[in-house]
Each structure stands twice: as structure tokens, then as C-alpha cells.
Design a protein that fits this description.
heterodimer; A: 2 domains; B: mainly alpha; Arc Repressor Mutant, subunit A; 9 helices
Chain lengths: 331, 181
Amino acid sequence: MFEEDQETLAAEYVLGTLSAEEREHAEALRSFDPEFDAAVKQWERRLGELNVMVEAVEPPAEVWDKIKSEIGVEAPAIAEAEATGDAEHAADLESSEGVDAADFLFVEAGSTQPDETAGQDAETAADEMAAPPAGKRAGVERGADIVRLRRRVGRWRGSAIALAAIAAVLAAYIAISQVKPDLIPPRLRAVGADLIARTMPTPERGPTDRLVAVLQQQPIAPAFLLTVDTQQRNVIVRRVSAGQENGRSYELWLIAGRSTPPKSLGVVGSDEFTERPLPASVDVDTLRAATFAVSLEPAGGSPTGAPTGPVLFTGKPVDSLPAAPPPTPKT
Amino acid sequence: MLTQAELVGLLAEIAKGDAAAFERLYGATRAKLYGVLLRILGRPELADEVMQEAYLKVWKSAASFDPAVASPITWMVAIARNRAIDIVRKRGEASIEDEPEALSVAADTPPPLARREMTEELKRLLACLGKLDPEKQRIVLLAYYSGWSREQLARKLDIPVNTIKTWLRRSLLEIRGCMGS
């Protein structure tokens, strides 16, 4: 059902008050759910008028020079543009603000009669808020590339948004790895400890480009571990502590962009490991920028080729290992 | 400033790859978008970067603009804000922690702005915002203009984050109810 939770998620996404994880989740929902996407667009229109209050500021001339030189090489194309948007978004995985369990009160919306004096007050208020900052904000000072996994691990504190249809939102930790799976970044190990530290069932492989993803529900309970091998062109899903499907099936999806329909990577089997081939059309860059998601489908998988059930887990990759050396492992 | 219809026409041309139309669109909208971005990002060099990204996205996805769903300027502002907020979220709370003075809401003594042209939609939105308690108006507007998260709103306004959540949720649903869908 598309109810208040979804509606306020769309609204807060547009307003800008969501944390990085929640934004990521909302982005994934936009890919899956046209109704949600439409709600986002409605909110963009509703709130977008506030831009009128913002004082126009002339940008430096070189901004246009740079744009102009770029458009010389990039022709308009819807699909391409959407893909770019998603790739941009992939970078957002890196940090976040704390997320608390949601416990919203809901109060029915009041009168629908706009009233003129209230509007004027609001206009004054909008003017005040829209004014440029009094002092120069030096706040956004950090390098853009502070990575990586460390912030997410500790901060994920469960489903922030009380989404009726969504049982949980998962964080995905994916590292392009040339290491063995048992050398998965220690920060992940801190999360999944012994579960992750075990080797994957493909010991004969040498170092290759390999994406490793941990999908987890709680800081101490990883649900899935994914290994995406870009040379073998397969993905191995390891069930760690995902709940029982109760006669239904978990299905894994790869979302390459908003304009591209989610690609099924197949149903996650009931055994501990499921190996699935990667679609031939998906290249490594796409994998790095993609969103992985797991939905709950009728037994045997979606009958339509597109997700039909609730999207339980979503996550986006980061494309590097943490820069810091591993801490001394506990024994 | 071009009229809305003219901007819609430009976007249609841009969708076909018309670089001259794109230059006109840029000329007509750059100062507004830059103002929006500066307000959120604070630093000109970041705003410059996001300007480039946003306009490239406009160039490449002009064909997906639907005048039935959005106005050109709200569509473009949404693209720019979205990217800007992604960036500030990525930087997380560091900016607050590193800059204690940012904890105070310093931006509250604005220069008087000239009376602007008000669209019908804006009047409707303001009328609906005006029905909210002043404190709730304030958080909605601060969130929109400054790109603050719930956490930042809570810290800067010294209001518990759960209260912020509740207020935002109520306020947004009230706005929707008031404006009609």
C-alpha cells in the first residue's frame, strides 16, 4: 500500500532531510516503484516553488566554459543521463548520519482552506530562511573522498523509516577486492566476524577483480554475503541469517539505473550458497555503480520478470577498499 | 527571465541536441540555480562543481522533462538540490563538528528582498505553510533552503531529533492535504 510512510519518505527525500542511507533507499525505491517515483516528482513540484525566494547569484564565467566543453562530447540521451545519475549516487554510500528507529506520530492533515494572512507570514518566514548565510559557512570542509566503510558499520541502526511493506533496509558493503575473501576489510569483519572470515567455496581462484558485498540487517547479523566475480562472471550469494521465506522466494536484483528495469540475478536458493551467472550485458563499471536488492517473491521467483513483492534489502557499492590498514585482529 | 513556456520550448530543443538552446537556458537559469546551491553548499568551489554536474544532467536528460509533471525551473532546481544534498550527506556531520559556530542559526537576519513575482503555485504553498505553527514552518523552510538533515536541524535548533521527525512528518502531510494532490 502506498500510505503515509511512503508519502513522507518521498517528501523528505525531496525536502532533503533524509540520511545518506535513507536517500539511498529512496533512490532504489524510485527504480522499483513508479508510484513512489511519481510521489517524488509531485513533491519536487510542490516544494520547488520555494526557489523563488532564493536570491539569485551570478556564477563565475568559467562554470559555463566547463559545461560547454563537456557537452561537446556528450550528446543528450535519456538512458545515459539516468545512468549517470545513478553512478553519481553510488558515491554516497560512504557516510551517513545516525539513524534511529522511527516512531512517528501521525496526525491527520488539517483544514484545506488556504488563508491569505497565513500565506503572508509564511512568505516572510520563507524570506528569512532563504536568505544567504550571514557568515561564510566554512563547514563543508572535508575532502570529498573520505571513505568508506567504517562510518556505515557503526551507524546502521536499523530501519529508519517505518515503511509498512518493507521489513528491513540492508546496508551493502562492497569492496572491489583483489584479496581473498578471508581478508575482507576488518571493519566488515567487525560486523560479521566469524561469518565473514570464513573462506568462500572457490579457493582455486587467483586474485581477480572481485566485488564483495555484505548485506546485513542489524550490526551483528549479516543476512547475505555476496561475492561478484567479474572474471568468472558469476555471483555467489551466501545466506547468513536471512529469515525464512515461508513458501516464497528471495530474488536478487541488479539495478543499473533508473531508466533500466531491474535485472533479475535469480532466486536465492535455500542452500547456504547460491551461484548465479551475471548477465552478459553487464560490465564492471555498471556493477560498481549498481544497486543490489533482494525482494520477496512468489515461490520460484517473480512471474513477471520484474520485482512484484516487497523490496526487503537494498544497497549500493563502494568501489574501493578502506584506505586505513587493518587493526590488530582479535583472537 | 524567460517565461515558463519559453523555457519549456528550450528544453524541447535541447532534447534534440540544440546547444544554442542550452546556452539560452543556462543564461536564463544559472543565477537562480547558483543561488540555491550556494545556500546549501556554502562554498563557491563546491557550488561550481555541482553547477556543472547539474547542467550536464539537464543537457543529457532534457528529453525526460515532462511539462505536465514539472515546471522547467522546479525540475532543474530539483536536479541541482538533489546532487547538492547528496554531497553534504556524504560529508556527513563533519561540517558541524568542525565548525561550532555553525551550530547557531546565524542566517536569520536577511537583507530585505525585493517583492518578487509570485506564481499561483507559490501562493498556494505559502498559504499552506502559513497554517503550520511558526516553529514547524521554520524547520521545513530551513530544511529546504539549507539542505539540513533531521539530525542537523535537531542540533542547530536544539530540538530532540524525534520531535523533528514527528514535526516534519506532520507538517509535510498537512502541506499535502492543504495543497491537494
